[in-house]
Amino acid sequence: MYFEDYEVGRVSESRSRTISEADIVNFAGLSGDFVELHMSEEYAKKGPFGRRIAHGALIFSISTGMMVQMTPHQEAIVAFYGVDKLRFVAPVFIGDTIHVSQKIVEKQQKNAERGVVAFENTVLKQDGTAALVYTARLMVKTKA
Prior knowledge:
Layout: E1 11-13, E2 17-18, H1 21-31, H2 36-39, H3 41-45, H4 56-69, E3 77-88, E4 97-109, E5 114-125, E6 130-141
Antiparallel strand pairs: 1-4, 2-4, 3-6, 4-5, 5-6
């Protein structure tokens, strides 16, 4: 999709994905974040959620991949331009299934060749609970 193809107000939903033990272990290895709340079931039992939770940054990372998968004709994407108002509002547990609900909230043409599109993204769990909310910005080519 090119800049002109994005319509402010349009809402889209991604496919879903279940968060696994392997996701958490692999992300800890990649990021170096071995906080016990993510890695130790016994420690997490005594914590505020009563069990292990997924890293917030893991859920954010997965959601960016879901966002890209929602974009047809990805060759028009120039860059991931930034994130605003990122908030982790509910924990995601092993076995939770998440998806992204995305609403186009703003478009700004930067020059004749490209513009920036802002998306209000909400990561939802299988029961409809919002786990993560943020505004993502993509720089995309114009048709010119």
